[in-house]
Amino acid sequence: MSDSATEFSHVKPGDTAFKSGGLRDFFLYRDLGVAEATHGKVIAHLVKANMAPEKGTGWHRHEADFQIVIMVKGWARFMYEDRETLVEAGDVVHQRPGIRHYLFDYSPDMEYLEIVSPADFKSVDVEPVCAIPDPTPWPEAKAA
Asked: What residues does the Cupin type-2 domain cover (predicted)?
């Protein structure tokens, strides 16, 4: 088998845990084994809300050849260039290479599947495109 061949991968829900330390500290990430199986050609991970949106992701773009977001639970509001986009559970978004965007609001139960190529894609801050609406306040946590 050559170094560029891909491997079979099957990850069950209990095989990998959600962890901090990903691109954004207010999200948790669950590796789905695709980056290892494809030798870095593609990454697939689940991303979920960990903290209320205060400042969001900031304006940025990705240095990637391909990226899709599939909203699994909840919702998120993005700015794609100067267009506000509500992405709800079941929606699929193809983020064309280099599109300037800003995830600025999301529900407490937000969870999405992100698939990107290459696996080691870069996130690059960009100048603001337009003003960002305020995020929706999360309900206060009930005392146990």
From this structure: 50-103
